[in-house]
Amino acid sequence: MDVLSDVLLSVRLTGAVFFDVDAHAPFATESPGVGEIGSQVLPGAEHVISFHIVTDGSCWAEAVDHSAPPVPLRAGDIVVFPAGNANIIASSPEMRGRPDPAQYYRPADRTLPFSLATAREPGAAHTRFVCGFLGCDTRPFNPLLDALPRIVHVPISTESRRWLDSLVGIAVQTSGGEGAGREAMLSKLAELMFVEAIRSYLDRLPADARDWLAGVRDPQVGAALRLLHGRPAHTWTAERLAREVGMSRSSFADRFTAYVGIPPMHYLSRWRLQLAARLLETRSVSVGQAAAAVGYQSEAAFNRAFKRAVGQAPGAWRRGRERRPD
Fold first, then answer.
1. Residues with Cβ < 8 Å from 122, sequence gap 6 or more?
2. Residues 161, 163, 169, 172: is their CA dihedral positive or negative?
3. Which CATH superfamily does the domain covering 3-203 fall into?
4. What is the CA radius of gyration of the chain?
5. What are the DSSP calls for 79-146, one per residue?
C-alpha cells in the first residue's frame, strides 16, 4: 500500500493553472490569500493550495505575512503554499505588488491560463513562471496538510522536467480549436507537479523530523500506516499492530504518536471516517453500508463519530455535498 497516494486520492486533489507569466526585472506579482479568492478559482473545494513553477530565469517567493523567510527560485523549481496564504513572486526579496482579486476567475469565453507580461526593459533579466491552485478536502481527515510547512520549496527532478516542459508547451498554445482539452491537461499536470513536490520534500526531510510524512518514511511507523491503509476495516488493536511491526505495544504507541501526532487507533478511526465520506458520495451506498464497509459494527456509533468529526450527521453531510458547486 502506497500511503501517500492513498491519502492524495482520498482527499480528491484537483488542480488548475491560472497564469502564464512572462516577467522582466524589476517585477513583483502578489497573489491574494485563498480565503479571499478560493471560491473563485476552485468552486466547491474545501481547501485551496497555491503554487508557482519557475520555467525560465530566477526569482524570489515570499509569504506576505512573513510566516517564512523568502526563498530563491530558479528554473525547474516549484514553490507551494499549503495553507494558501497570500504570497509574492518577485525579482528581488522584500518587493511588494498590488494584488487584484478580480483577475482570479474562471472565464466563460476562453480557456485558462491567462497570459501576463511585464514591460520589457533593455537588458532586463527575464523570468517565466506559471501559477495555479490545487483543491482538496480537509474533512473528515487529511493528515497531509498538517505535516507541511508554510512554504514547500523543492527542485523538480530531471525526469519530471519533461512533464514541466509539456506543461509550458501546452500553456503557451493559442486559444481556440487547437487548444481544446488544454485546460484539463494542465489541471492534471498541475496535480502531478504537486505530487512530485511532496515526494521531493519527503526525500529531503531531515532524519530527526517528526510528522506524518516522516512517519510514512519511518520503518516501523510506515509499516503500521501501510497496514492501516491497506486493511482499514480490519479489527486492528495497538497490540496487533505492534506485533506486526516487531515492537512492544508501549514502544510502538509512543513512536507512532511522536510521528503522527495521535495514537494509532485514533488515526484508524479518523481514516475510516475519511473513507466513509467518499463512499457516501455514491448515491447507491447507504449510511449503514458505508459504516460497515470501513469497519463499524454499529451504524449509531458511526453516526456519532462522523458528527463529532465534521459537525454534521452523515446524511446531512451527504446532502450538503450534493449541493456543492461543480
1. none
2. negative
3. Jelly Rolls (2.60.120.10)
4. 22
5. EEETT---EEEESSTT------GGG-S--SSS-SPEEEEPPP-TT--EEEEEEEEEEE--SS--HHHH
Pick from 275, 135, 146: which is nearest to 191 by CA? 135
Note whether 219 and 225 are within 8 A (CB): no
* Residues 157-201: tens digit of each pLDDT: 777 777 666 666 665 554 444 567 778 888 888 898 899 899 999
**Average pLDDT of the residues in 54-62:** 94
Nearest to 124 by CA among 179, 206, 189, 59: 59
The CA-CA-CA angle for residues 182, 190, 35, to 5°, reads 110
- CA–CA separation, 322 vs 326, rounded Å? 9
Answer whether 128's CB lies under 8 Å from 55's CB: yes
Q: Rounded to 5, what percent of the chain is helix, strand, coil? A: 45, 20, 35
- Residue with cell string 482538496: 136
Burial class for 177, CB neighbours closer than 10 Å (0-12, 13-18, 19+): exposed
pTM score = 0.90
17: cell is 493553472
Q: Which fold has domain 212-322?
A: Arc Repressor Mutant, subunit A (1.10.10)
Closest CA to 291 of 311, 318, 265, 264: 318
- Which cell is 1 given? 500500500
What is the rounded distance in angstroms from the CA atom of residue 41 to the CA atom of residue 4? 25
Q: Is 231 helix (H, G, I), strand (E, B) or coil?
A: coil
Q: Where are the domains of the chain?
A: 3-203, 212-322
